[in-house]
Amino acid sequence: MESGVEKVDSGAGGSQHRGVGRPRQLRACVGLVLVAVLAAAPLPLAAQQEQRVVRGLSFDGNKAIDDYTLSTAIATSNSSFFASVWWLRWIGFLGEKRYFNELEFRRDVVRLLLLYRQSGYMSAVIDTLVRREGNDVFIRFRIMEGDPVRLERLEITGLDDILSVAALKKDLPLAVGTPFNRMLFQASADTIVGRLKNRGYPYADVLRSFDVNAAELRAVATLEAVPGPRMRIGDVAIGGTEKVDTGTVRRMLSVKRNDLFRQDRLYQTQRDLYGTGLFRSVNVVLADTAPPADPGDSTVGVVVRLREGPPHRVRMGVGYGTVDCFRVQSGWTSFNFLGGARTLDITGRLSKLGVGVPTDWSLRDNVCRALRDDLTSDTLNYGAGLTLRQPFFLSPRHAASFGVFAERRSEFKAYTRQAVGGNLAVTLNARRNIPVTVGYGFSYGRTTAQPAVFCSVFRVCDAGDRALLESSRRFAAVTVSGVRDQVNNVLDPSGGSLVTVTVMHASRLVYSDTLYEFNRGELEASRYYPLGRRGVFAWRVRAGAIVLGRITLAGQSVHFVPPDQRFYGGGPNSVRGYARNELGPRVYVTDSIDVGGGGDSTFLHLTASPTGGPNSVRGYARNELGPRVYVTDSIDVGGGGDSTFLHLTASPTGGNTIFVANTEVRFATPLFPDRMRVALFVDAGQVWERGEPLTTVNGLRVTPGVGLRFATPLGPVRLDAAYNGYPAEAGPVYLLNNTDKSLTLIPGAPFRPALPPGFWRRIVWQFAVGQAF
Length: 773
Prior knowledge:
- The protein is mostly beta strands.
- The protein is built from 11 helices and 38 strands.
- It has a 16-stranded antiparallel β-sheet.
- It is globular, with a radius of gyration of 36 Å.
């Protein structure tokens, strides 16, 4: 076995531009040339024939530039995790091996020096340490950055009466007092060009110059703006259309004749045309790349080049979900339906395949075990819809849609909704930072839930009164929602924020049934902060409330909101320490009570009555010898556990108030850093029923956890494990009469489940596609 260590040193320093410190600059340039010559020199034959695997690559001493940036600037790269970690690489066939190239390694020193010089560190020195062990090589770059050249003064000229220079400097990437980074200097010039082009100067340019004194570690830079003529939009030419009418395209353009030129309007037009789905490619550019020769010409032409896509699209998908079992969906889309860039979309979906009638294939006890105790999954769910979308409505800034639907959908252990209806929505300022959507929805159908939910929340325990609440009725509501979306990635955001506000009003004024009168509001805000290259710190807050109306039912005044409009908590996108919908108030139902061996202490207000018999034994009080019968008006089951009842089932009732807060840190793992990340999170929240005396829920529930994120083309697939140190919520217990299905509240007996024993039984697993928020 051969082993050895070799060391290569290289340094750079000096001054450049406009004759400042010429001797030092000459020495630095000569040094770089010598390094480059040495790097290009032919290697010994033995070195050229060696095939060594890079088992380790590290950087020491770097503070200004992180390891990731340095590793992307060089050609040498470390082998993958399985091929570099000492306790795994012995397997041999796992992981990708990356080989050491002596010539490229020598050039890497030059690459790093140039990167540091571009970043303002003119006197940086790179020291390399190479350790060879047989066919393995371990590389370490030891960096002495030195002090940077700092920007002493930044002058911006040529912007008189156009932009505020003082305000502009605050927005530039390069600031006075920071290291003189050439890349940020170029980015600052591009920022000024962009500002000018959005103020009517299509041919704006910026000239750059700078003086660097490496000996004194200072630099002076100048950005000279050359705005050129201020111009308006002239002719707008449209080419490439075949089936789509040119007039339709023109109505969707954000660039209009005689408007002041703005570069962002060209980008907006391109995004809008892509968003219609009509075109494969869209290119919106200036007709001329140079300003007109005639100084009196103050207009600029714009060319819109298009390539149409297919007029129809068919899509189909098959999948599996924990609360859906197997599901299938399909859709057909017609673009430019009847002209005007309209889109007609027809969709259909089926779920509960394998557990719901008529497709009950007995999968409830094996493949779809999560639905074993879910009574709402007894029937197939379906949905069919037709939606017509108009991308520009009255103005290119607005959009409208109209749809009709028929559905049967069930929410896990909560409710089932069957309805047909339609909706109409208009999105105002669809292109702005905060688009506002005003919608009206009308449906005719029924919502069913467990009898105990109606009995506990709405005080409707009689089977006839429940049938009245569950009968088909019309439901209509006006909804107003606003969204401020500034995230940098829809599927996996790592920066920015998202705020959503939704308000709903349902009453007789909008033609809703008198049974459905309420106001519902919800606010959700999330924020994302990047941590390094692959890390993210994120938080989210969600709050909602329902203001109830009153109805008179069975001679009493009650609050009523249909179960499908109430708030539910728990699940992969809520408080992850709880299963879906299991956060918040619960109600329990039993059809029989096991009091065997319970003793008198099981009952409250227990009384005994003799049934007749001899009274001759003096050891007994009068009439107490012989058969007896016992009567109680309440049962104390506090802490009794499930064993007190037979066939006990729990149902979430939802609530009229919700609060959920989530925090999460995501970071890359050494194993597959580009494909896998670890998440540490803490979730807190609760669902309440305001004004409900039987509800014993109070206080927030906090559940910490850890999870894995796997990158896929569909977005991150995640597996979360959350610890729940709380017993299930206590709730009232109802005795079900199997004959007439009526319910009787067992007074004074809120059922309090015991906390599951052991650590692992308190872990709740969540599997989902997409981030939790």
